[in-house]
Amino acid sequence: MVAVMSNPATAAKKPPPTKFEAIVLKVDGATVIVNAPVEKHFNQQTVKTDAKTQITVNGKSAALTDLKAGDRVIVSPPGGTAKQIEQKAPRNTRPPEAGQVEGAVVSVSGSQLVLRSATSSGEIADMKTPVSEKASVSIDGKPGKLTDLKPGEYVMAVFFSGDLRRIVVTAPQP
Question: pTM of the predicted model, to two decimals?
Answer without folding.
Answer: 0.72
